Amino acid sequence: AHERLLFDDLVQSEQAGRSFPSQSLLMPKVLEYQALEARALAAHLDALRNTGFRIEEFGDNDFVIKGVPSWLGDVDLEAFFSELIDVMLDTGMQGNPASLRNEILKTMACKAAVKEPDRMHIEEIRGLLESLDRSDSLPVCPHGRPFVLKIPFDEIRRKMGRK
């Protein structure tokens, strides 16, 4: 559910031309890539900046990240960007820019979302459910996996040994 809400917010902001606020890093992070990977990343810097990244080219194949979007949470930036670049290279080969941007936003939402083993406070859970109630989101993550299941009451009773 969190992934879906993040994705929808990213898509809506992009369509409205809004940028996300950025949180400055205490220590900028330098990422080094091979030439092909660096070209893929360089081609999408504007999209990354619009989602709240403060990222710049830093030499031939290096990039420096000075800020991250507030929605990102605590992620491994090297792994995050590595996966984004893989998506850029895989999807970019199909030649469909809209599909590529959509896949990039899906990956961003996926990496930033709360994961199954993560613990959430009750207030966070309530906030997530309230946001979900207010949204018109589909009950599936951006990759199509459902996060809502309807279980008939009779089945619940049967599993509880009541009928």
Describe what this molecule looks like in 3D.
This protein is 50% helix and 14% strand. By secondary structure, it is of the alpha+beta class. A three-stranded antiparallel sheet has the order 1-3-2.
How is this structure best summarized?
The chain is of the alpha+beta class. Helices cover 50% and strands 14% of the residues. The protein has helices spanning 2-16, 35-42, 45-50, 77-92, 97-112, 122-134, 153-159, and strands at residues 22-32, 54-57, 62-69.
Q: Unreliable stretches, pLDDT < 50, 5 or more residues?
A: none
Q: How would a crystallographer describe the biggest sheet?
A: 3 strands, antiparallel
Query: Strands across the major sheet, in which order?
Result: 1-3-2
Through-space gap between termini: 32 Å
Can you give the mean pLDDT?
86
What portion of residues belong to β-strands?
5-15%
Structural class determined from secondary elements: alpha+beta
Specify the overall morphology.
elongated
Q: Can you write the helix and strand succession as a string?
A: HEHHEEHHHH
Radius of gyration: 19 Å
Question: Notable features of this structure?
Answer:
alpha+beta, 3-stranded antiparallel β-sheet, single chain, 3 strands, 163 residues
What is the strand and helix layout of this fold?
Elements: H1 2-16, E1 22-32, H2 35-42, H3 45-50, E2 54-57, E3 62-69, H4 77-92, H5 97-112, H6 122-134, H7 153-159
